[in-house]
Amino acid sequence: MRPAMKPLVKPGLIAASVCAAAALFAGYAQASVVPAVSGSLTMTSDPGDYIGQGLNWSYSLPPDSFGSQILFSNGVEAIVNGANGDWWYLDFGAPFGARLTPGTYTNAARWPFQDPSQPGLSVFGNGRGCNTLMGSFTVLDATYAQDGSLQSFHATFEQHCEGFAAALRGEVQLASIAPLQITLTLDPKGSIKSSSSTVSGTISCSRPATVFVSGTISQQTKRYGMTSGLFGATVNCTTSTAPWSAIGSSYSGNPFVPGAASVDGSATGNDPPSNTATVSGAVQLTSAK
Fold first, then answer.
1. Do 168 and 191 share a domain, yes or no?
2. Cβ–Cβ contacts within 10 Å for residue 81, how many?
């Protein structure tokens, strides 16, 4: 969640137009925030620059925290939360809906209100933002994970609020962990013992991680009607395919019996960012020895 912002309005500007812009501004982010494992931000503000207040600013991870998210299909947002309570958002967008790639982008206007032919830029924080701006930025590095999230980003920028000559100049750099990719399969054979049943399968991950596998077992029988149970297990997942198993206990008051059962399962990494893998299928339960 982004901190509550003070109104982005300066004396002499029409508050109503700013409120309308703020409503749009709050809804343009389209992806979840991915935490960064490294990051830095430095900014130099000219006297008279509203955003930087004529000061120099510097942050790095640690102790400050960084994150990023993708904005629509053509934007990147870098997020900085200072250990001292400062917070900044830096938005960069390519023109014409193109993916943001390395290069120099001139004649930038305030993101996300720029003309489609223009690049977008907006650096704001600590309760201060531009109503209108002009600027430019150079993307030195931009790489993306398979799911489209940002893996690395490095850019320099120059921003002028409200058409004033005073500028905010800076450089931001960050690297993120790609979301964990999980491959989960379900074994068509399981076992029962009393009111519990065991299901199993295989699992592999794009990097070593602790993963929680959970789900439901459902079985319809003539004798007992519907029997349902929950299962869960913590698995040390690696890049090699390995077996997993979990015990599900009946919570419906009826026991499981030998025969067909339906299983729905999912696996999610305990350490974000993580995607969730899901499986479902019919499992033949047999009596455990």
1. no
2. 18
